[in-house]
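Team,

Forwarding the record for the chain on the shared tracking sheet. I've put the sequence and predicted structure together so nobody has to dig through attachments.
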Amino acid sequence: MIGLLAALLLLNPFASADAIRFTPPNPTTHTSIDAIATGTWPDGCVPQPASVSVSGSTITLHLVAGSVCPAIITSYSTVFHLDLLPAGEYTVVTVDDVRSKELARQTLVVREADTFVLRPYAVPVTGGKFSIVNTSNTAVKVGGVSAPAVLQSDGGVLVDAPPHVAGPADVTVGSVTAKAALIYYDPTAADPAVFEPLLFPVSFEGPGAAGSQWTTENVVELGAHSFFRDPVANGRLANDSKPWGRVFYAVRGTIEDASFNSRVRDLSRQAQSAGTEVPVVREREFRARPLRFLNIPNDGRSRLTLRVWSLDDAPILFNTDTSPISFPLPLIPMTRIDGTTMFFGSVDVTARLPQGTPNGIVFAATSPTPAPRLWGMISITNNETQQVTLVTPQ
């Protein structure tokens, strides 16, 4: 097991990197914050949270572990409760107190969301427009710089924010200032403090086996205040036939009233089937636990493909657990999706599953590092009719 772990870490040198993420990712002054520290420990004593110290804008998370431990690399994931913090930008550091070593460093932005309501509360570093809902005062400054503002017919003012470095900026209206109310982001990145991913798992258009002609209908109905990093319009999305589908990034909290739908169908058999609905996946459906797919038929009449998406870069092993026998599957190569922080991998599992056991097959995703946040699906395509059935983890 130790040799396998070392091999996996060599395959993916970044998988062992310690990291910090926050829940919720975009906190305000009224949000209780948890900092989740993850990584690999050099021995078998799993570290525990010791204390949290605050010095100015630096927050230090202290980890401690035993001194006499088995010589085996161990993954860890531990939670620090930061509670409420004043508005501003913080540097959060994880420290191994036993070895006096810094493990990870991450920026945390806490917004002041009470004084003014901003829509959206994030703009690119090149500048952009946002609305201040609860004011009619056009004397606006962003980051201390005067910003053009005009009254809107439906109330509030529309502000043209000037360029600014990535990170938070204070917003002043008249004599009132809201600290860190507006966040500037790099439009070439996908800052998790600003954006949540939205996944359309299929975006295929073209011919398939046995004369099939596939199309995907991905449809968007935006809410009144939906904002995305890249332009997204109401209606049907174009298909680009990438194996991972399409990934969009929405400003957090702005698509709760939006609606989405996805359906794949065979145009050559429209009279026989209206197609198969495909889940549209939100960030909350990615979970740091094994993916388990139940009731997978493998009777030799269909081909089965496992597709996996991950929010974290880590090697992923899959096995089928059909008591009393376990069928190992190989490492799935995970490729970073262009323009995103998401990773994708797929494997044909038809020949790797035992036939004649239509019930109780379980896929368990494992990793030597802290469990990556995963979502996946298995497509079952009938070799004769080309009818597609999708199975997702429940």
